[in-house]
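Consider the tokenized backbone below.
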């Protein structure tokens, strides 16, 4: 693995995360991209404006984490998770929603999502999610 794709936390090399962000709101997508671009555990970020766009991108390039909105037209976040699970290798998925209700959270976790968070919590929770994922990858 290329050395520029590694990060050092204390003296342990950790692989950086390739991230795909999915949301139908372009302003929100831009804001999340700016938030995640500054995180030390992120290597590459791509954005998709729909579930279909996300599946096409994930079929062409490898992503470690897909962060998707739940409520989108044509293909919602749950349908996207189902499509991503059919890929090999299958990326890890976290979902976000304006209202991360207990029902949304339970459904997302049942489908194999890593986490379900409210959009207003991303500033606090994304750094933790990225750091924990980067530490989980073998170096």
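A designed sequence for it:
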């Amino acid at each position: 693995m290329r050395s520029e794709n590694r990060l050092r936390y204390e003296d342990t090399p950790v692989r950086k995360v390739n991230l795909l962000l999915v949301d139908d709101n372009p302003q929100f997508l831009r804001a999340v991209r700016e938030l995640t671009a500054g995180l030390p555990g992120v290597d590459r970020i791509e954005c998709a404006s729909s579930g279909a766009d996300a599946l096409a991108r994930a079929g062409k390039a490898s992503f470690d984490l897909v962060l998707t909105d739940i409520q989108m037209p044509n293909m919602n976040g749950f349908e996207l998770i189902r499509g991503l699970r059919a890929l090999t290798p299958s990326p890890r998925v976290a979902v976000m929603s304006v209202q991360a209700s207990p029902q949304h959270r339970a459904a997302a976790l049942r489908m194999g999502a890593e986490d379900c968070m409210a959009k207003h919590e991303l500033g606090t929770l994304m750094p933790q999610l990225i750091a924990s994922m980067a530490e989980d990858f073998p170096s």
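Strands lie at 6-9, 12-15, 17-22, 42-48, 65-69, 92-97, 115-118.
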